[in-house]
Protein backbone atom coordinates (compact mmCIF):
# COMPACT_ATOMS: atom_id res chain seq x y z
CA UNK A 1 0.00 0.00 0.00
CA UNK A 2 2.82 2.40 0.91
CA UNK A 3 5.07 1.18 -1.86
CA UNK A 4 6.26 3.92 -4.16
CA UNK A 5 6.37 3.78 -7.93
CA UNK A 6 9.28 5.47 -9.66
CA UNK A 7 8.56 6.58 -13.21
CA UNK A 8 11.26 9.22 -13.54
CA UNK A 9 14.15 7.33 -15.15
CA UNK A 10 14.90 10.26 -17.47
CA UNK A 11 15.79 12.35 -14.41
CA UNK A 12 17.90 9.57 -12.94
CA UNK A 13 17.63 5.78 -12.87
CA UNK A 14 17.94 3.57 -9.81
CA UNK A 15 21.47 2.14 -9.51
CA UNK A 16 21.62 -1.41 -10.87
CA UNK A 17 22.68 -3.98 -8.24
CA UNK A 18 25.70 -5.07 -10.27
CA UNK A 19 26.79 -1.43 -10.70
CA UNK A 20 26.39 -0.85 -6.95
CA UNK A 21 28.58 -3.88 -6.25
CA UNK A 22 31.25 -2.59 -8.67
CA UNK A 23 31.09 0.86 -7.06
CA UNK A 24 31.57 -0.55 -3.55
CA UNK A 25 34.40 -2.85 -4.65
CA UNK A 26 36.22 0.08 -6.24
CA UNK A 27 35.59 2.28 -3.18
CA UNK A 28 37.15 -0.36 -0.96
CA UNK A 29 40.24 -0.64 -3.18
CA UNK A 30 42.64 2.25 -2.62
CA UNK A 31 44.49 3.38 -5.71
CA UNK A 32 44.97 6.33 -8.01
CA UNK A 33 45.03 5.28 -11.67
CA UNK A 34 48.05 7.51 -12.27
CA UNK A 35 50.19 5.77 -9.61
CA UNK A 36 52.69 3.14 -10.72
CA UNK A 37 52.35 0.84 -7.69
CA UNK A 38 50.11 -2.20 -7.57
CA UNK A 39 47.12 -0.32 -6.15
CA UNK A 40 47.43 2.31 -8.89
CA UNK A 41 47.71 -0.34 -11.60
CA UNK A 42 44.64 -2.09 -10.20
CA UNK A 43 42.66 1.18 -10.38
CA UNK A 44 43.85 1.64 -13.97
CA UNK A 45 42.68 -1.87 -14.84
CA UNK A 46 39.24 -1.12 -13.41
CA UNK A 47 39.06 2.02 -15.55
CA UNK A 48 40.31 0.23 -18.65
CA UNK A 49 37.61 -2.42 -18.24
CA UNK A 50 34.98 0.31 -17.85
CA UNK A 51 36.35 2.14 -20.88
CA UNK A 52 35.97 -1.01 -22.96
CA UNK A 53 32.41 -1.54 -21.76
CA UNK A 54 31.30 2.03 -22.43
CA UNK A 55 32.97 1.90 -25.85
CA UNK A 56 31.17 -1.39 -26.60
CA UNK A 57 27.77 0.14 -25.76
CA UNK A 58 28.41 2.76 -28.46
CA UNK A 59 30.39 0.65 -30.96
CA UNK A 60 33.38 2.94 -30.40
CA UNK A 61 37.14 2.65 -30.03
CA UNK A 62 37.96 2.55 -26.28
CA UNK A 63 40.76 5.08 -26.89
CA UNK A 64 38.07 7.59 -27.86
CA UNK A 65 36.33 7.40 -24.46
CA UNK A 66 37.02 10.41 -22.22
CA UNK A 67 35.53 9.95 -18.76
CA UNK A 68 33.89 13.06 -17.30
CA UNK A 69 31.74 13.85 -14.28
CA UNK A 70 28.54 13.34 -16.29
CA UNK A 71 26.57 14.37 -19.36
CA UNK A 72 26.79 18.09 -18.71
CA UNK A 73 30.56 18.07 -18.62
CA UNK A 74 30.72 15.82 -21.69
CA UNK A 75 28.60 18.34 -23.63
CA UNK A 76 30.76 21.25 -22.47
CA UNK A 77 33.93 19.37 -23.38
CA UNK A 78 32.60 18.64 -26.89
CA UNK A 79 31.24 22.09 -27.65
CA UNK A 80 34.38 24.18 -28.04
CA UNK A 81 35.68 26.09 -31.05
CA UNK A 82 39.17 24.68 -30.40
CA UNK A 83 40.16 21.19 -31.46
CA UNK A 84 43.34 19.43 -32.39
CA UNK A 85 43.68 16.40 -34.68
CA UNK A 86 46.97 14.80 -33.79
CA UNK A 87 49.24 17.84 -33.65
CA UNK A 88 47.19 19.91 -36.12
CA UNK A 89 44.84 22.58 -34.71
CA UNK A 90 41.24 22.59 -36.00
CA UNK A 91 39.07 25.62 -35.36
CA UNK A 92 35.29 25.77 -35.58
CA UNK A 93 33.74 29.18 -36.20
CA UNK A 94 30.09 28.52 -35.37
CA UNK A 95 27.98 26.19 -33.28
CA UNK A 96 24.72 25.04 -34.87
CA UNK A 97 22.30 23.40 -32.42
CA UNK A 98 18.62 22.53 -32.36
CA UNK A 99 16.16 24.52 -30.26
CA UNK A 100 15.26 21.45 -28.20
CA UNK A 101 18.74 20.66 -26.91
CA UNK A 102 19.30 20.23 -23.18
CA UNK A 103 20.58 23.26 -21.26
CA UNK A 104 23.91 21.42 -20.99
CA UNK A 105 24.27 22.17 -24.72
CA UNK A 106 22.38 25.45 -25.08
CA UNK A 107 24.05 27.02 -22.05
CA UNK A 108 27.05 24.78 -21.51
CA UNK A 109 28.86 25.29 -24.84
CA UNK A 110 32.07 27.32 -25.06
CA UNK A 111 31.27 29.47 -28.10
CA UNK A 112 30.70 33.23 -27.91
CA UNK A 113 26.92 33.88 -28.01
CA UNK A 114 27.12 35.63 -31.41
CA UNK A 115 28.64 32.48 -32.94
CA UNK A 116 25.74 30.19 -32.05
CA UNK A 117 22.84 29.46 -34.38
CA UNK A 118 19.78 27.71 -32.97
CA UNK A 119 17.61 25.88 -35.50
CA UNK A 120 13.85 25.33 -35.30
CA UNK A 121 12.02 22.01 -34.90
CA UNK A 122 8.63 21.00 -36.29
CA UNK A 123 5.45 20.48 -34.26
CA UNK A 124 6.60 16.95 -33.37
CA UNK A 125 9.96 18.18 -32.12
CA UNK A 126 12.05 17.00 -35.08
CA UNK A 127 14.84 19.20 -36.38
CA UNK A 128 14.15 20.77 -39.74
CA UNK A 129 16.77 19.23 -42.06
CA UNK A 130 16.00 21.95 -44.56
CA UNK A 131 16.91 24.61 -42.00
CA UNK A 132 20.11 22.71 -41.20
CA UNK A 133 21.04 22.47 -44.88
CA UNK A 134 20.38 26.19 -45.41
CA UNK A 135 22.44 27.17 -42.35
CA UNK A 136 25.32 24.91 -43.38
CA UNK A 137 25.32 26.31 -46.90
CA UNK A 138 25.26 29.88 -45.61
CA UNK A 139 28.17 29.27 -43.23
CA UNK A 140 30.16 27.37 -45.87
CA UNK A 141 29.69 30.25 -48.31
CA UNK A 142 30.94 32.68 -45.62
CA UNK A 143 34.00 30.47 -45.07
CA UNK A 144 32.83 29.40 -41.59
CA UNK A 145 33.52 25.93 -40.30
CA UNK A 146 30.61 24.59 -38.23
CA UNK A 147 30.23 22.30 -35.27
CA UNK A 148 26.73 20.79 -35.31
CA UNK A 149 25.14 19.53 -32.09
CA UNK A 150 21.81 17.71 -32.25
CA UNK A 151 20.60 15.38 -29.51
CA UNK A 152 19.75 11.78 -30.31
CA UNK A 153 16.67 11.64 -28.06
CA UNK A 154 14.93 14.38 -26.14
CA UNK A 155 14.76 14.20 -22.35
CA UNK A 156 11.23 15.64 -22.10
CA UNK A 157 9.47 14.00 -25.02
CA UNK A 158 11.69 11.06 -25.99
CA UNK A 159 11.57 12.23 -29.63
CA UNK A 160 14.40 10.75 -31.69
CA UNK A 161 16.21 13.04 -34.14
CA UNK A 162 17.29 11.89 -37.62
CA UNK A 163 20.99 11.90 -36.68
CA UNK A 164 22.34 9.89 -39.67
CA UNK A 165 20.77 12.50 -42.00
CA UNK A 166 22.10 15.35 -39.82
CA UNK A 167 25.58 13.81 -39.97
CA UNK A 168 25.40 13.28 -43.74
CA UNK A 169 24.45 16.92 -44.36
CA UNK A 170 27.09 18.16 -41.93
CA UNK A 171 29.80 16.08 -43.61
CA UNK A 172 28.94 17.53 -47.02
CA UNK A 173 29.95 20.89 -45.56
CA UNK A 174 33.01 19.72 -43.62
CA UNK A 175 31.27 20.25 -40.27
CA UNK A 176 32.02 18.34 -37.09
CA UNK A 177 29.01 16.54 -35.55
CA UNK A 178 28.17 16.00 -31.89
CA UNK A 179 25.14 14.20 -30.53
CA UNK A 180 23.94 14.24 -26.93
CA UNK A 181 22.90 10.61 -26.40
CA UNK A 182 22.44 10.95 -22.64
CA UNK A 183 18.81 9.76 -22.86
CA UNK A 184 19.24 7.37 -25.77
CA UNK A 185 22.26 5.32 -24.74
CA UNK A 186 21.29 2.03 -23.14
CA UNK A 187 17.65 2.47 -24.23
CA UNK A 188 17.94 2.18 -28.01
CA UNK A 189 20.90 0.94 -30.09
CA UNK A 190 23.49 3.71 -30.43
CA UNK A 191 26.44 3.14 -32.74
CA UNK A 192 28.80 6.04 -33.26
CA UNK A 193 29.74 4.62 -36.67
CA UNK A 194 26.19 3.97 -37.86
CA UNK A 195 25.10 7.42 -36.72
CA UNK A 196 28.09 8.87 -38.58
CA UNK A 197 28.87 11.40 -35.85
CA UNK A 198 32.24 12.51 -34.46
CA UNK A 199 31.31 12.90 -30.80
CA UNK A 200 28.72 11.38 -28.44
CA UNK A 201 27.88 12.43 -24.86
CA UNK A 202 26.64 9.84 -22.38
CA UNK A 203 25.90 9.82 -18.65
CA UNK A 204 26.12 6.96 -16.14
CA UNK A 205 23.22 7.84 -13.88
CA UNK A 206 20.65 7.59 -16.69
CA UNK A 207 21.47 3.92 -17.33
CA UNK A 208 21.71 2.59 -13.79
CA UNK A 209 25.26 3.60 -12.97
CA UNK A 210 26.15 6.03 -10.24
CA UNK A 211 25.96 9.82 -10.50
CA UNK A 212 29.41 11.35 -10.92
CA UNK A 213 30.47 9.69 -14.18
CA UNK A 214 29.81 10.23 -17.85
CA UNK A 215 31.82 10.23 -21.03
CA UNK A 216 32.49 12.08 -24.19
CA UNK A 217 33.08 9.40 -26.81
CA UNK A 218 35.14 10.50 -29.81
CA UNK A 219 35.06 8.47 -33.05
CA UNK A 220 38.62 9.43 -34.00
CA UNK A 221 40.81 9.01 -30.89
CA UNK A 222 43.27 11.52 -32.39
CA UNK A 223 40.64 14.27 -32.33
CA UNK A 224 41.00 16.30 -29.13
CA UNK A 225 38.68 19.03 -27.88
CA UNK A 226 40.37 21.77 -25.83
CA UNK A 227 40.09 20.48 -22.25
CA UNK A 228 37.71 22.07 -19.76
CA UNK A 229 40.08 21.01 -16.98
CA UNK A 230 43.72 20.92 -18.05
CA UNK A 231 45.07 19.70 -14.72
CA UNK A 232 47.38 16.73 -14.51
CA UNK A 233 46.94 15.32 -17.98
CA UNK A 234 44.61 12.43 -17.09
CA UNK A 235 42.47 10.86 -19.82
CA UNK A 236 45.35 11.31 -22.27
CA UNK A 237 45.43 15.03 -21.59
CA UNK A 238 41.77 15.48 -22.48
CA UNK A 239 40.35 15.81 -18.95
CA UNK A 240 42.55 16.65 -16.01
CA UNK A 241 41.72 15.57 -12.46
CA UNK A 242 41.95 12.29 -10.58
CA UNK A 243 39.35 10.00 -12.08
CA UNK A 244 36.26 8.98 -10.09
CA UNK A 245 37.21 5.30 -10.21
CA UNK A 246 34.19 3.94 -8.24
CA UNK A 247 31.64 5.81 -10.38
CA UNK A 248 33.55 4.86 -13.55
CA UNK A 249 33.61 1.19 -12.51
CA UNK A 250 29.84 1.30 -11.92
CA UNK A 251 29.32 3.09 -15.24
CA UNK A 252 31.14 0.30 -17.09
CA UNK A 253 29.09 -2.41 -15.42
CA UNK A 254 25.82 -0.53 -16.05
CA UNK A 255 26.79 -0.03 -19.71
CA UNK A 256 27.50 -3.74 -20.05
CA UNK A 257 24.19 -4.68 -18.42
CA UNK A 258 22.26 -2.24 -20.61
CA UNK A 259 23.99 -3.54 -23.75
CA UNK A 260 23.33 -7.19 -22.84
CA UNK A 261 19.55 -6.71 -22.59
CA UNK A 262 19.03 -3.83 -25.01
CA UNK A 263 16.78 -5.58 -27.52
CA UNK A 264 14.53 -7.40 -25.06
CA UNK A 265 14.33 -4.37 -22.76
CA UNK A 266 13.27 -2.09 -25.59
CA UNK A 267 10.31 -4.37 -26.30
CA UNK A 268 9.44 -4.97 -22.65
CA UNK A 269 9.57 -1.29 -21.71
CA UNK A 270 7.66 -0.12 -24.78
CA UNK A 271 4.90 -2.60 -23.84
CA UNK A 272 4.72 -1.24 -20.28
CA UNK A 273 4.50 2.31 -21.54
CA UNK A 274 1.91 1.38 -24.14
CA UNK A 275 -0.28 -0.31 -21.51
CA UNK A 276 -0.13 2.74 -19.23
CA UNK A 277 -0.69 5.25 -22.04
CA UNK A 278 -3.71 3.40 -23.45
CA UNK A 279 -5.28 2.86 -20.04
CA UNK A 280 -4.80 6.52 -19.11
CA UNK A 281 -6.21 7.77 -22.39
CA UNK A 282 -9.16 5.47 -22.14
CA UNK A 283 -10.01 6.27 -18.50
CA UNK A 284 -9.12 9.97 -18.62
CA UNK A 285 -9.87 11.37 -22.09
CA UNK A 286 -8.98 14.83 -20.74
CA UNK A 287 -5.29 13.83 -20.79
CA UNK A 288 -3.40 14.78 -23.96
CA UNK A 289 -0.47 12.70 -25.20
CA UNK A 290 1.86 15.42 -26.49
CA UNK A 291 3.99 13.29 -28.77
CA UNK A 292 2.77 9.93 -29.95
CA UNK A 293 2.94 9.57 -33.72
CA UNK A 294 6.69 10.04 -34.07
CA UNK A 295 9.82 7.97 -33.58
CA UNK A 296 10.49 8.22 -29.83
CA UNK A 297 12.25 6.41 -27.01
CA UNK A 298 10.35 3.33 -25.80
CA UNK A 299 10.34 4.55 -22.20
CA UNK A 300 9.06 8.14 -22.30
CA UNK A 301 5.52 9.55 -22.18
CA UNK A 302 4.86 13.27 -22.25
CA UNK A 303 1.29 14.05 -21.17
CA UNK A 304 -0.70 17.14 -20.30
CA UNK A 305 -3.95 17.89 -18.54
CA UNK A 306 -4.52 21.33 -20.07
CA UNK A 307 -5.42 23.95 -17.49
CA UNK A 308 -4.11 21.95 -14.51
CA UNK A 309 -0.62 23.26 -13.64
CA UNK A 310 1.98 20.50 -13.98
CA UNK A 311 3.26 21.05 -10.45
CA UNK A 312 -0.25 20.37 -9.05
CA UNK A 313 -0.33 17.06 -10.90
CA UNK A 314 3.19 16.10 -9.89
CA UNK A 315 2.57 16.88 -6.21
CA UNK A 316 -0.78 15.06 -6.19
CA UNK A 317 0.77 11.99 -7.82
CA UNK A 318 3.73 12.16 -5.45
CA UNK A 319 1.36 12.11 -2.47
CA UNK A 320 -0.32 9.10 -4.06
CA UNK A 321 3.07 7.35 -4.24
CA UNK A 322 4.00 7.96 -7.89
CA UNK A 323 7.18 9.86 -8.85
CA UNK A 324 6.99 11.73 -12.18
CA UNK A 325 8.47 14.99 -13.48
CA UNK A 326 6.99 18.29 -14.58
CA UNK A 327 8.12 20.57 -17.35
CA UNK A 328 11.75 20.22 -18.26
CA UNK A 329 12.72 19.05 -14.79
CA UNK A 330 15.93 17.17 -15.38
CA UNK A 331 16.96 18.50 -12.01
CA UNK A 332 14.33 18.25 -9.30
CA UNK A 333 12.29 21.24 -8.29
CA UNK A 334 12.60 23.02 -11.63
CA UNK A 335 9.14 23.70 -13.01
CA UNK A 336 9.82 26.40 -15.58
CA UNK A 337 7.90 26.49 -18.87
CA UNK A 338 9.56 24.05 -21.21
CA UNK A 339 11.71 25.50 -24.02
CA UNK A 340 11.27 22.17 -25.80
CA UNK A 341 7.48 22.36 -25.93
CA UNK A 342 7.66 26.08 -26.79
CA UNK A 343 9.95 25.27 -29.74
CA UNK A 344 7.39 22.69 -30.90
CA UNK A 345 4.71 25.38 -30.84
CA UNK A 346 2.72 23.71 -28.05
CA UNK A 347 0.29 26.34 -26.69
CA UNK A 348 1.30 27.77 -23.29
CA UNK A 349 -1.81 26.40 -21.53
CA UNK A 350 -0.95 22.85 -22.59
CA UNK A 351 2.82 23.22 -22.11
CA UNK A 352 2.43 24.57 -18.55
CA UNK A 353 0.47 21.43 -17.70
CA UNK A 354 2.91 18.96 -19.25
CA UNK A 355 4.39 16.17 -17.20
CA UNK A 356 6.60 13.23 -18.04
CA UNK A 357 6.51 9.56 -17.15
CA UNK A 358 9.69 7.63 -17.86
CA UNK A 359 10.27 3.90 -17.40
CA UNK A 360 13.53 2.01 -17.13
CA UNK A 361 15.36 -1.15 -16.22
CA UNK A 362 13.69 -1.50 -12.80
CA UNK A 363 10.13 -0.94 -14.06
CA UNK A 364 7.62 -3.79 -14.20
CA UNK A 365 3.94 -4.58 -14.65
CA UNK A 366 3.27 -3.73 -11.00
CA UNK A 367 4.50 -0.18 -11.67
CA UNK A 368 1.89 0.23 -14.38
CA UNK A 369 -0.81 -1.06 -12.02
CA UNK A 370 0.30 1.19 -9.18
CA UNK A 371 0.67 4.20 -11.48
CA UNK A 372 -2.89 3.65 -12.72
CA UNK A 373 -4.07 3.38 -9.14
CA UNK A 374 -2.37 6.69 -8.33
CA UNK A 375 -4.04 8.42 -11.29
CA UNK A 376 -7.42 6.99 -10.29
CA UNK A 377 -6.98 8.43 -6.81
CA UNK A 378 -5.82 11.91 -7.84
CA UNK A 379 -7.67 12.65 -11.08
CA UNK A 380 -11.13 13.38 -9.60
CA UNK A 381 -9.64 16.03 -7.26
CA UNK A 382 -7.38 17.54 -9.94
CA UNK A 383 -10.30 17.72 -12.39
CA UNK A 384 -12.51 19.36 -9.74
CA UNK A 385 -9.82 21.97 -8.98
CA UNK A 386 -9.30 22.61 -12.67
CA UNK A 387 -13.03 23.17 -13.17
CA UNK A 388 -13.13 25.58 -10.20
CA UNK A 389 -10.07 27.59 -11.33
N1 LIG B 1 21.69 15.93 -21.82
C1 LIG B 1 20.45 15.43 -21.70
C2 LIG B 1 19.65 15.15 -22.92
C3 LIG B 1 19.92 15.16 -20.44
O1 LIG B 1 18.69 14.67 -20.33
C4 LIG B 1 20.70 15.43 -19.30
C5 LIG B 1 20.07 15.16 -18.01
O2 LIG B 1 20.20 15.70 -17.03
C6 LIG B 1 22.01 15.94 -19.47
C7 LIG B 1 22.47 16.19 -20.75
C8 LIG B 1 22.91 16.22 -18.32
O3 LIG B 1 23.48 15.02 -17.86
P1 LIG B 1 24.09 14.92 -16.37
O4 LIG B 1 22.94 14.95 -15.42
O5 LIG B 1 24.81 13.62 -16.35
O6 LIG B 1 25.01 16.08 -16.20
Q: What is the beta-strand fraction?
A: 15-25%
The percentage helix is 40-55%
What is the overall shape?
globular
Profile the largest sheet: 7 strands, mixed
Secondary-structure element order, N to C:
EHHEHEEEHEHEHEHEEEHHHEEHEEHHEH
Order of the strands making up the biggest sheet? 2-10-9-8-7-5-6
Determine the number of helices (DSSP H or I, runs of at least 4 residues): 14
Mean pLDDT figure: 95
Unreliable stretches (pLDDT < 50, length at least 5) are none
Query: N- to C-terminal separation?
Result: 31 Å
The kinds of small molecule bound in this structure are: pyridoxal-5'-phosphate
Structural class based on helices, strands and sheet pairing:
alpha/beta
Written account of the structure:
The protein has 389 residues and is an alpha/beta fold. Helix content is 40%, strand content 16%. It has 14 helices and 16 strands. It has helices at 17-28, 38-57, 71-78, 103-106, 129-141, 163-172, 192-195, 234-237, 245-260, 262-283, 310-319, 339-343, 348-351, 365-388, and strands at 5-6, 65-68, 82-85, 88-91, 94-98, 116-119, 146-149, 176-180, 199-203, 214-218, 223-225, 288-289, 300-304, 322-323, 325-326, 354-358. Helix 5 (129-141) packs parallel to helix 6, helix 10 (262-283) packs parallel to helix 14 (365-388) and helix 11 (310-319) packs across helix 14. The model has no long low-confidence stretch (mean pLDDT 95). Bound molecules: pyridoxal-5'-phosphate (PLP). Pyridoxal-5'-phosphate binds at residues 70-72, 75, 102, 104, 151, 155, 180, 182-183, 203, 205, 214, 330.
Amino acid sequence: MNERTYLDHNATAPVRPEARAALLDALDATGNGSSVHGEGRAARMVMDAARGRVAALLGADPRGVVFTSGGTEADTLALTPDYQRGEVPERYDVLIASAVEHAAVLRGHRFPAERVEVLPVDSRGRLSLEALDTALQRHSAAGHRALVSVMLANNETGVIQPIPEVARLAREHGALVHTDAVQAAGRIPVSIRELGVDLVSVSAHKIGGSPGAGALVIADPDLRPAPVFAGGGQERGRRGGTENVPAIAAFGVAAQAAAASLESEQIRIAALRERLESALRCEFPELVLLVGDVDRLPNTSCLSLPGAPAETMVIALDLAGLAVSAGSACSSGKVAASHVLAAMGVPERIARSAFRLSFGWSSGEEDVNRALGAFRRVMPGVLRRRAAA
